[in-house]
Inverse folding.
């Protein structure tokens, strides 16, 4: 997976690179390295004070929301490509930024992802409660 990400990054930069944009690409890379260095320094410096449980709870919720959004956008893209049929749902809003499209297929995919997420969160809570009850 890491190799794939590196390959995609190289392709991205290769597409951007030409004599006219070389300075901007290098400046952007230098800025990114500096920003990552500052973030790493801040995290190492203040990580003792970071409420790690709250941090991971927030990041898990954010990833869950993104999963639902991407499910809707993915199915909508397949519909635009003609690979999945389109069954319109009347009276349902279309909110593209949230990946909500007024079609039965996109809503079904999002409900399926939401169901898996809810089941996973409940399973994790129940497992954590069992471990806490059995802890010495």
């Amino acid at each position: 997976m890491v190799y794939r990400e590196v390959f995609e990054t190289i392709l991205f930069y290769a597409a951007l690179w030409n004599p006219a944009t070389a300075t901007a690409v290098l400046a952007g890379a230098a800025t990114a390295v500096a920003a990552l260095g500052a973030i790493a320094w801040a995290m190492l410096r203040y990580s003792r004070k970071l409420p790690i449980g709250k941090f991971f709870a927030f990041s898990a919720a954010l990833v869950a929301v993104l999963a639902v959004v991407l499910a809707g956008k993915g199915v909508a893209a397949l519909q635009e490509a003609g690979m999945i049929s389109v069954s319109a749902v009347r009276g349902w809003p279309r909110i593209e930024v949230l990946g909500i499209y007024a079609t039965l297929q996109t809503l079904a995919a999002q409900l399926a992802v939401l169901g898996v997420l809810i089941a996973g969160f409940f399973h994790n809570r129940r497992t954590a409660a069992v471990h806490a009850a059995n802890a010495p």
